[in-house]
Each structure stands twice: as structure tokens, then as C-alpha cells.
Specification:
This protein is of the alpha+beta class and 405 residues long. Helices cover 24% and strands 22% of the residues. A six-stranded mixed sheet has the order 6-10-11-9-8-7, covered by helices on one side. Strands 1-2-3-4-5 form a five-stranded mixed sheet. It has a two-stranded antiparallel sheet with strand order 12-15. Its main location: nucleus.
Amino acid sequence: MIEPHERFFSEGQGYFGPSESPATETHCNVWDWDQLRWIKVKGTAKLFPPGEDVETSVLAQFADYLSPEVRSITVNDDGLLTGVSTDPEEDDTLFIGYIPLSLCQSLTDCPTIYFSQLQELDRLGPGVDLSSYDGHRVAFKFNPLGMPRRLQMSWKEMNLLSKLPPHPNIIPFDRIVLEDVESRVIGFTTKYIPGGTLAEAKPKRPFRFEWLRQLTQLVDFLNLDMGIVHQDIAPRNLLVDPETDKIILFDFDWAANGQDGLMDGRDDVSGVVFTLYEIITNDTYFTSIPHWERNKDMVQTTEWTCHCELDSDVSRFREFLNEWVASRADGATEQDPNPPKRLTWPDLPTPPDYNVPFELGMTEEGEPVWRTGVRSRRIALEKGQYCFRWERPPQRRLKKAENSM
């Protein structure tokens, strides 16, 4: 089940007047990762001051009880519900022009499965479900948001994972997921590995020295052989496969392929250093520091107080880590500029749907202004364009229904 603190996020506050005036009408679009829909929260600047995200906690009180047709709610200055609206004009959901598989040449050799063939078993986190088909359990990763950066990240991750050679420490790619009407690519599945991440399971199992060795070898393989930087190595993105007892790295949506997508302060060597420190000390302070403000010397030069069970002395872990960091210090901290096995794939195709013109406002002479490109779902539906709908009931309702059967 999606953790409560991960369930909602807000686009921010929109003010119809000065934000410093408590009476100014305020609209806030809030995304619900559980129900996969936007809901507009309306009130005043007194309740919704700039930058405080009060709207997420306000919506959390009512979200599970709202009809699927509700597009906005209105609350008073005490956060109490005073009205709901099903008016489609209140819906600011962006249209996502998912790419037909026929236009995705880099993915045409991948095995596929239709969305209707997946049975939802659980909601593991934002944009990740535990699903099953033909008796197999898989993690289904999808992008229901029309933000260009998220679409690019999703395209990159499915291409990268589907093209990486099989590796005992990388999550195995499974299938491309297609929606049923027009065979558009909406996500992908990977093998599901039970037991939780190292962030969730670290108090429950001893951390093995061999896992550190496997992680450093994996990072060398990705950086030096493949030219790939994961850029988000952390306990939350590491599993241990109970079938092989090997550490598994997943979640490649931040990965850089060569210079494409490379960011300062997110090199994998530093990621391993901070990951091992967090696992051994159970200190999560450094996860709150932006990557560009962190430096591995912050923890490498300090004493590590062990707060987890290890299969070797802390000194053995630290000595191995320091030797590995030193071996990567001269010219190969991030990746080889000319790796022997560089992966390639084309840019994300432009959805043909965005070439359909739509009216957006009027000229001074009263003539309609025509635009192409990104549009709202409401406009796309008015133009007769096909829209895949992600909305679904709250998981809490589904579980109650299952328990009552």
C-alpha cells in the first residue's frame, strides 16, 4: 500500500488576487497517487499560504470518500468541506499522447502484455503496482502524469532496462505494457522480488560483506563497461533476491547514458558511500541534503557507530570501501567517456496526437487562435482524441470489499 506521506503532491497555489490577502480565492491542484487523478482544492489564501502545501493534508481527509466524477472540492478557512463539483471545466488534467508501439522501433522486439491482462495485487508506491499474469508476479511501473520530464524519464528507463545484458545484480526486465484500444506504450514490468528494500528491511536481516562487494562490482560494470550512471543508489533502491541471496539494484529512471542526463553530485561512487553509511549507522540525515551539497568526505572521515547487524566487523566494510573509492578516484568517478558496450536508442517520438490543432483563445479581432502541442485532457476529448484513463478506486475501499466477501 502506498505510504500516506507519499500519496499526495501539489502543483502549488494559484491566487486570484494578492496572496498576502487572507480573503483571496485560491486554487490548488493535488495529485493522488492512489486514485491516479488530479483534484482541485479551492479555498482562500488564509488557509493556503504560499509554499506550505496545506492542501495535501486537507484533501487527505476526504479523498477516499469522493465520487470518481468529482473534479474539485471547496473548503472553508477551517479546512472543512463546503462543496464539491463534477464540472469538467474544473479538470486541469493534461492529455498524455502515449506512443503507439508501431512508432517505437527501439521497443518492437520486446515482449508485450496488455493492461487488461494484468491483475492488480497491491500498490507498492507512486507509479508502481504489484501485479500478476499467468501465475507470475511482477512490478508494473507506469507514468500517469503528462509532465514532459517524467515522460522522458520513463522512455529512457524502459529502453535502458530492456537493452541491458542480463546481470545477476540488476532487476530483470519483463514486458512492455500496452493499453488495449490502440496498443500504446503505457509502462513496463520487471520481475517482482519480495522482502522489501534495504531501507525497509535493514533492521530485519544482517547486512553481508558480500553484498557490498557485489554493489561495487555492479557500479564498475555500469559506469566503466556500459557508460551508465544510475544516479540514485540508495537503500530504498536496493533489494536482496531470496532465491539467489544477491543484492539487486532497481529504479533506473534517473540514470544517465553517457553525458545524456548526467547531473552534478549524483555519481554512483558517492551513492555507494552514503548507502553503506546509512545501512550501518541507520543515520538518514544525509538523505535530506541535496546531492549537489553532499560530499562523500562528510561520512568517510567520520566515525561510524554501528546500529545494524553485520556479518563482519565495521572496519572490514570501511577498509574495502575506502580502497574501492581510491581505485575510482583517478578519472573514472562517473563513467568511461568511451565505454566498450554503450547502449543507444532514439529520442522519445513526438506523439502524433499533438499535431492536431486546437483553439486557445481569441485574437483582438475576435478570430480563434489555433495551437498544436501539449493540451489538457478536456480539450483532447473535445477534439475526439483517444485518452487512456488511469483513474481507479481508492485501495482502502478495494481492501474493505475483499475483506467483506
